[in-house]
Amino acid sequence: MDFLYTLVILLYLGVAGLLVYLVLVQEPKQGAGDLMGASADLFSARGVTGGLYRLTVILGVIFVALALLIGLWPR
């Protein structure tokens, strides 16, 4: 059971590192309207940027699921 817990922790750290990398690689959106929430195309990313955005969202969901799993893991 300790081996499985260690494996989940290592997976969690790997996902966290990859998530940080993907967030830093993405290009920022242009325009001052984004600061006030006036961006109409928040979820309509296209091309490579859209792929990075989708991968970031998927890794974010995996990160949260692993965090909940680790938090609820009986020790």
From TrEMBL:
GO MF term set: protein-transporting ATPase activity
Keyword vocabulary terms for this entry: Cell membrane, Membrane, Protein transport, Translocation, Transmembrane, Transmembrane helix, Transport
Location(s), subcellular: Cell membrane; Membrane
One family name in Pfam for this protein: SecG
GO cellular component, one term: plasma membrane
Keyword Membrane applies: yes
Residues passing through the membrane, by range: 6-25, 52-73
Membrane topology reported for the UniProt record: Multi-pass membrane protein
GO terms for biological process, alphabetical: protein secretion
InterPro entries: SecG
Family of the protein in this entry: Belongs to the SecG family.
Function: Involved in protein export. Participates in an early event of protein translocation.
Name this polypeptide is given: Protein-export membrane protein SecG
Taxonomic source organism: Thermus scotoductus
Gene it is expressed from: secG
